[in-house]
Amino acid sequence: MNWKYLKDKIYFSDGSLRDIFISDTTCSDWEKWVQYVNKNHHVEWYNSKTDKYETSIDFKIIQEFWHGIIDICPTSSIFIKEIQINVHFWGDSEIENDIDPEQINSLEDNLALITYMSEISDLLNKEVLLTPENYHEICLIRVNINNIEFA
């Protein structure tokens, strides 16, 4: 893949983020995702119950938020190389990660992101999309396990 094409068409800088989006997820999918990132990536998780940052996500706290036991949504950042991926746990029906396209600066960064998306797709047996922020109907990258399509 040509870096200029990727930078111009996928990781263009317009002040917005990109969403890594997985639809039709379940609580079980989220739990698998949490186990995967805790094991494989550097994690900075804000535990809204204790008001502290921790180095792994406590899935029980996420479930407490979903069930209304705690009011403040926990958040997390995970890091793939130098790429920061932000996560909000609004609900269990979709997984959405945010990335700043300005952090993708090379073919190697692109490969790291694609590898993450492929591993998640394989783990959950679901399609993973990279879309413009809040425009999930516009697909920039589609990953279905090892099948990768670019816009």
Can you put this structure into words, describing what you see?
With 151 residues, this protein is α+β, with helices and mostly antiparallel strands. It has one domain. It contains 4 helices and 9 strands; from the N terminus they run αβαββαβββαβββ. The chain has a 9-stranded antiparallel beta sheet with strand order 3-2-4-5-6-1-7-8-9, covered by helices on one side. A hairpin with a 2-residue loop joins strand 4 and strand 5. The longest helix is centred in the C-terminal third of the chain and has 18 residues. It starts with a helix and ends with a strand.
Features:
4 helices, alpha+beta, 31% helix, 9-stranded antiparallel sheet, single chain
